[in-house]
Amino acid sequence: MMESNCSIDIEFTEEERRYIQIMALQSEKFSASARILYNIVFYLPAVALGIYGIFDGSFKTVGVAFVTLVCSMAYAFAAEFHEARYTRLAHSIFRKMWARMKNAQQN
């Protein structure tokens, strides 16, 4: 890619500025492995309880594990919908940046 020293002024909304600040300050250590570990820790109790219920022959324990797992999945879906908001915000920011970069190259 070509690097340019020209300054590009972009008018971001307050929400877009907050998002940029959050992303800039976010630790790079929050990687895919950290997300996998978070999900394992989140679902492991329900899975362990279900396995225990199967070996113990207790349908109540298996039922509790199933309800716990369903609640965990509902929380995960809600988190995905919440994250989709930030994805739309990021796309808005990048569209503005791309439009300004194209205008700067044409001038």
Number of helices: 3
Class computed from helices, strands and strand pairing? mainly alpha
As a percent range, the share of strand residues is under 5%
**How are helices and strands ordered from N to C?**
HHH
Question: What global shape is seen?
Answer: elongated
Mean pLDDT: 80
Contiguous low-pLDDT stretches (5 residues minimum) are none
* Main sheet: strands, sense, barrel: none
Counting DSSP E segments of at least 2 residues, the number of strands comes to 0
CA-CA gap between termini:
18 Å
Q: Helix content range of the residues, please?
A: over 70%
Rg, please?
A: 22 Å
Structural commentary:
- The protein contains three helices and no strands.
- Helices cover 79% and strands 0% of the residues.
- It starts with 13 loop residues before the first helix and ends with a helix.
